[in-house]
From TrEMBL:
<keyword id="KW-1003">Cell membrane</keyword>
<keyword id="KW-0472">Membrane</keyword>
<feature type="domain" description="ABC transporter">
    <location>
        <begin position="4"/>
        <end position="241"/>
    </location>
</feature>
<dbReference type="InterPro" id="IPR047641">
    <property type="entry name" value="ABC_transpr_MalK/UgpC-like"/>
</dbReference>
<dbReference type="GO" id="GO:0015408">
    <property type="term" value="F:ABC-type ferric iron transporter activity"/>
</dbReference>
<dbReference type="GO" id="GO:0016887">
    <property type="term" value="F:ATP hydrolysis activity"/>
</dbReference>
<dbReference type="InterPro" id="IPR013611">
    <property type="entry name" value="Transp-assoc_OB_typ2"/>
</dbReference>
<keyword id="KW-0813">Transport</keyword>
<dbReference type="InterPro" id="IPR015853">
    <property type="entry name" value="ABC_transpr_FbpC"/>
</dbReference>
<keyword id="KW-0067">ATP-binding</keyword>
<dbReference type="Pfam" id="PF00005">
    <property type="entry name" value="ABC_tran"/>
</dbReference>
<dbReference type="InterPro" id="IPR027417">
    <property type="entry name" value="P-loop_NTPase"/>
</dbReference>
<comment type="similarity">
    <text>Belongs to the ABC transporter superfamily.</text>
</comment>
<dbReference type="InterPro" id="IPR003593">
    <property type="entry name" value="AAA+_ATPase"/>
</dbReference>
<dbReference type="GO" id="GO:0055052">
    <property type="term" value="C:ATP-binding cassette (ABC) transporter complex, substrate-binding subunit-containing"/>
</dbReference>
<dbReference type="Pfam" id="PF08402">
    <property type="entry name" value="TOBE_2"/>
</dbReference>
<dbReference type="InterPro" id="IPR008995">
    <property type="entry name" value="Mo/tungstate-bd_C_term_dom"/>
</dbReference>
Length: 357
């Protein structure tokens, strides 16, 4: 296992980048703790795979350094970094059996035969392929081959880091939960440093100790699932995490008051915010009301999703989502919304502003 340090790291695919916009990966300075499980989460094209490939040695960064436990490995080849990497699409040896594929990394390191047998059997159980160990990989389905790729990454217990680049893309949906659970168990059992790239928030939030949210080549927040949900550091985090995502309202901020349209909202704390100012409120903290004070709103539809109801509203021409309890009755005369104060976040130019008492 290794602590991974990203020191002044940035990358451009252009030979002579002239501005920040020319960088696919904008400057990063982060320490990722030894033995923690991280998920790199963001939309396609945000820089997730670029960062992972720099850490693995498949790509040399335009600037900065990568260190494993303080040792500079920026230009070291992948083989010298002692990592295991699983890619989005399966990479297997078709002429080998499942058993031989799983054993291959261990045989290359001259491991004792009995230990190879033990580890292969354990991993085969984890990926539910014990009954196919002696079958050739050729002819297996894509999801079966990807399970072999996952198993080959998990079979080594001495790696500095395990890197996964959207490894469950080709896996049948009913198997995804099981494999995520097994990866989490592997992490708990052996304490590998794990980095898991995904655009799926469910995968990220159920797998990782810390989620690294990327947007437009930047890391905009690193935090636990609870931190990302309750205090999104950037409006993109609020939008991307949660279903539905956070509602954003253009607002004028004056101390502890936000002005949304013609309505004043008490923020509970005082804020100093300049630039493009907004307040963000998750659907769980929207309060529906009939008459009285609040922001004028009109119900467009109600979606019953089993666990709760999603109320879609029109607020001054903009869509807003609220969440109500499964057993709640939604009156037809709802015409205003208000916010639970503990659920309001203030943003200036998309970045969260801390309040003060």
């Amino acid at each position: 296992m290794a602590k991974i340090t990203l020191d002044n790291l940035a990358h451009s695919y252009l030979p002579k980048p002239r501005s920040e916009d020319d960088f696919a990966l904008k400057e990063l300075n982060h320490d990722w703790a030894d033995g923690e499980a991280y998920a790199l989460l963001g939309a396609s094209g945000c820089g997730k795979s670029t960062l992972l490939n720099i850490i693995s040695g498949l790509l040399i960064p335009s600037q900065g350094r990568v260190l494993f436990d303080g040792v500079d490995v920026t230009t070291a080849p992948t083989a010298d970094r002692n990592i295991a990497q699983v890619f989005q699409f399966p990479v297997v040896y078709d002429t080998m059996t499942v058993r031989e594929n799983l054993a291959f990394p261990l045989k290359n390191r001259g491991m004792d035969t009995a230990e190879i047998t033990r580890r292969v059997q354990k991993v085969a159980s984890m990926i539910d392929m014990e009954d196919r160990l002696d079958r050739k990989a050729r002819g297996l389905t894509a999801d079966a081959k990807q399970k072999i790729s996952l198993g080959r990454g998990m079979v080594r217990e001495d790696v500095n880091a395990l890197l996964f680049d959207e490894p469950l893309t080709v896996i049948d949906p009913h198997m995804k939960w099981e494999l995520r659970t097994q990866l989490k168990k592997l992490h708990n059992d052996f304490g590998h440093t794990m980095i898991y790239v995904t655009h799926d928030q469910t995968e990220a939030l159920t797998f990782a100790d810390k989620v690294v949210v990327m947007y437009d080549g930047r890391v905009v927040q690193i935090g636990t699932p609870q931190e990302l949900f309750e205090r999104p550091a950037h409006t993109f985090v609020g939008y991307f995490i949660g279903s539905p995502g956070m509602n954003l309202f253009d607002a004028q901020i004056d101390g502890r008051t936000a002005r949304v349209g013609d309505t004043s909202v008490d923020l509970g704390q005082s804020y100093t915010a300049q630039g493009k100012t907004q307040i963000g409120v998750r659907p769980e903290f929207i309060r529906l009301q009939s008459g009285g004070e609040g922001i004028p709103a009109r119900i467009r539809r109600v979606e019953d999703v089993g666990r709760h109801k999603i109320v879609r509203l029109d607020v001054e021409g903009r869509p807003v989502s609220a969440i109500a309890g499964e057993g709640d009755t939604i009156p037809a005369d709802i015409d205003h919304i208000s916010f639970a104060p503990e659920g309001v976040n203030v943003y200036a130019d998309d970045w969260r502003v801390e309040g003060r008492a």
